[in-house]
Amino acid sequence: MAFLEVMGIYKNFGKTEVLKGIDFSLEKGEVLAIIGSSGSGKTTLLRCLNFLETPDSGCITLNKEVLFDGRQYKNMREDEIRKKRLHFGLVFQSFNLFPQYTALQNVKLAAELMIKDERKEIVAAKAQWTAALEEVNQEAQNLLIRVGLEDKMHNYPWELSGGQQQRVAIARALSMKPDILCFDEPTSALDPELTGEVLKVIKGLKSSDRTMIVVTHEMEFAKNVADKVIFMANGVIEEEGTPEQVFEHPKSPLTQAFLNKSFESI
Amino acid sequence: MGFTQVTLDLLISFKENCTIFAATLLFALPLGLLISMGSMNKFFPLRWVTKTFVWIIRGTPLMLQLFIVFYVPGIMFNAPMRDRMLATLIAFIINYACYFSEIYRGGIESIAQGQYEAGQVLGMTKAQIFFKVILLQVIKRIVPPMGNEIITLVKDTSLARIIAVGEILFAAERYAGRGLIWPMFYIGVYFLLFCGGLTLLFNYVEKKLDYFRG
Lengths: 266, 214
Hints:
Chain A is α/β, with parallel strands linked by helices. Chain A has helices at residues 42-49, 78-85, 103-118, 126-146, 162-175, 192-205, 219-225, 243-248, 253-263; strands at 4-13, 16-26, 31-35, 57-62, 65-69, 88-91, 180-184, 211-215, 228-233, 236-241. Chain B has a single domain (3-212), classed as MetI-like fold. Chain B is flat and about 70 Å long.
């Protein structure tokens, strides 16, 4: 069984069918790029994985643990969903940093709240508490250094460029140590000259134990960084395979048309 | 009657205005939040009841509401309202809570959905998202409209005169009745100074929240 198994995901918004039976699997350490035109369901799929949308049916299994099962979902409690959600991290197209916090505070916040929440009952563990918070602080600083923002840690989001904000958002998503890190068109809101710095950071995150799913319009990036590419059209997976298979030898006419358009020079 | 004597006398009456002001804020600010929760509730009947209530309160004059609170218990239930200040406070608190609730609602609904989602994918609870992420952004956005409303409240306190609460306008009228007209105009100074102080306070709060944008 693969690390991530997604089976038969359906999702409607009212009468619009957005996802019409999505199946795919992903191995640990792989990078999956999802491409396709706007409205093909890429973002909805990513949001389903992160429990921001609830699929109408289907099944999501991670590391043999069933995270979502359309038949039982209604019985799931809020805090259960919250726990399952933490297997995934999500970087948004529009960054969604918290404006009132500095870069460092943005990265630390969720982990800090988690510690405070867990240890509220154990009053005796004060020293342990302080140590854990210090660890979170150190970890957050390391993450920001990792995305190249060691000199921006104490800046507020509005003082940062779009590319810098997105890098903070990446560090923030990493702070909860997700099993799978998802990116929803991470560079679509950026000026072209800022796209590179973000893509470089994402590329740099690739390692044998980090699994990533990237919804993107950056074809060169998908080609060079992904281990696996999925092309979506009209709510289904039209074609999937290695970057070579999908980009060099696309079988479906829809894929061919999409790629032709994407690489068309003006 | 000398200037100093009148000034002091009016100041004592102005204490009534200050009481109405402070008590209204104290109760209407939290009550408004409660009402806004009602008007944003997913449960349709509750939302409908709340919105209708807000419509009625905002759609009728505060002066009429003062009359109703003060006279209706006596006329209809044979239980006359004896405490004029209490009647004033009830009318003011309900009236202002409704206005505040709409300001809160506007503030809360103006926060981008992405802020909630960012909190959710980081595993934060609903309460954590509201108190640690949303609330301060809402406060920043509602300071200007709140300032407006609170300054209106200062001046509205003199409406209590209509049910003979001994506030500053009432005191000035007593002078006028005895042939001393100028205190009637002079009371404007009290309101001006009070509102001036509030304006400075709101400017300070706005400055304090200027460190972030969003």
